[in-house]
Amino acid sequence: QVTLVESGGDLVQAGGSLRLSCAASGSIFSIKAMGWYRQAPGKQRELVADFWSGGLINYADSVKGRFTISRDSAMNSVYLQMNSLKPDDTAVYYCNVVVLQTAYSRSVSTYWGQGTQVTVSS
């Protein structure tokens, strides 16, 4: 089992900044991918940004140039620096991790955090 603990969500005015943090703990042999998704009311969950162990980093087009994802491999943590926030960024932000749980695992496992609310007022 893997547990994700998220923090950093808040109410902020448009143009402001927030930094989300997520730490993974539990049965982790290696992390294949880690990142952030978001879900606004009435909408599907969507990728915000993630990175993969091979070095690939993905960003949603809507956040490119404003959001930056970073990681601390030693701490199994991922961060999302969000600048120039817009009301359209209002959503519950979920941390996601894809892991190999043991050296003998034949497949990866995916885990989600419980979400942190980001609200951007106009």
Oligomer: single chain
Mean pLDDT across residues? 95
- Strand content is over 45%
End-to-end Cα distance: 40 Å
Coarse structural class: mainly beta
Short note summarizing the structure:
It contains no helices and 11 strands.
General description of the model:
The protein is mainly beta. The chain has no helices and eleven strands. A hairpin with a 4-residue loop joins strand 5 (46-52) and strand 6.
Helices and strands in order, then pairings?
Layout: E1 2-7, E2 11-13, E3 18-26, E4 30-39, E5 46-52, E6 57-59, E7 67-72, E8 77-82, E9 91-100, E10 109-112, E11 116-121
Parallel strand pairs: 2-11
Antiparallel strand pairs: 1-3, 3-8, 4-5, 4-9, 5-6, 7-8, 9-10, 9-11
List keywords for this structure.
122 residues; mainly beta; 7-stranded mixed β-sheet; 4-stranded antiparallel β-sheet; 11 strands; 0% helix; elongated
